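Problem: given the chain below (94 residues), write out its structure.
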Amino acid sequence: MIARLTTALLVAICALGATRARADTAAADTCASTLPPSALALYETIAPRVRPDSSLESLLRAELTPKVMFGGMSRADARAAAEAAAPCLEMRKS
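Solution.
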């Protein structure tokens, strides 16, 4: 229960920073440093490909679909990793 609350709080903090008008790589990396291991690995894989006009959903799906389809990750774990990494990735995008 505490882990879920902590994760929710960290995601909320990261999401607040996503409202900045310009990409802030340092803040995004700081946000990512608080992620659980699977979400951090996802962030590190996708972050170099994020551009201002990128669709994060498309990038996340392209990375996670093969992992789920071939048994490398469960659907639930993939969703949790994507939801955790998305606010940090959004910081790089904006």
